[in-house]
Amino acid sequence: MSESSSSQYLQTLFGLTGKTAVVIGGTGVLGGAIADALAQAGAHVVVVGRNAESGASRVRSIEEKQGSAEFFTADSTNRSDLEALVDHLKTRGKAVDILVNGAGINAATPFLEISDEEWDRIFRVNLLSVKVACQVFGQAMLDQNISGSIINIASMSAITPLSRVFTYSASKAAVLNLTQNLAREWAEQGIRVNALSPGFFPAEQNRKVLTPERVASIMTHTPANRFGDPDELAGAVLLLAAGKAGSFITGTNMAVDGGFSCMTI
Description:
- The chain is an alpha/beta fold.
- It has a single domain, classed as Rossmann fold (3-Layer(aba) Sandwich), CATH 3.40.50.
- Helices cover 44% and strands 14% of the residues.
- It has helices spanning 3-14, 29-40, 52-64, 79-91, 116-143, 166-186, 212-220, 234-241, and strands at residues 20-24, 44-49, 68-73, 98-101, 149-153, 192-198, 253-256.
- Strands 3-2-1-4-5-6-7 form a seven-stranded parallel β-sheet, sandwiched between helices.
- Strand 4, helix 5 (116-143) and strand 5 (149-153) form a beta-alpha-beta unit.
- The longest helix is centred in the middle third of the chain and has 28 residues, at 116-143.
- It is an enzyme of class 1 (oxidoreductase).
- Pfam families: adh_short_C2.
- Its EC number is 1.-.-.-.
- Belongs to the short-chain dehydrogenases/reductases (SDR) family.
């Protein structure tokens, strides 16, 4: 196969030219890396978040690499904000082909000290935002007869709970359950719903819990013996987003964890 034929084949499998991707939480470290990957594959990326400065910075970074992006200010849990984004894209002749639900917060609180307020706050950001976005953008995909891809960012702690992050683990486990339910619900309509569970990638929501002792424990249980680099999520994201390469993948949870999930003793 010639180089040009090989390039064309890969573009057919993984290319996203002409697609629009909405990345909720795209102003963060991992969400930003996901936005970059989608843009480099040819998608127009809408970076969604509340921090306009961080959003503008991410858009500039994408555009410097010849990608297409814009920032849209929205609260991930606010239905009206997300409906406004759907309307905004319609006025530009665009529809959402790919949705990434990447908003998330964490806290390391002993179980008996977890307040109702903390529990509700974490579940609101980590789970309610996914439910609302899937309703808003899922309805738009159905209305416009789009074979779309929804990628919900879960966590390895959704499968095997990690110490001291009770609420986070419970909320991400619920994200996995919702992902599977929606995958079953929308498969015949051509909407694929999958989860992506990163292993240990230093990011805003986990820096406070990464004490030296915890880092040592993580390395002991990670065969790769290192943290992940945000760019290492790109391959998994493109597979799940791609209309061709990922066309028969739905209802799954893809772990990108350096082997953490296969480690016992």
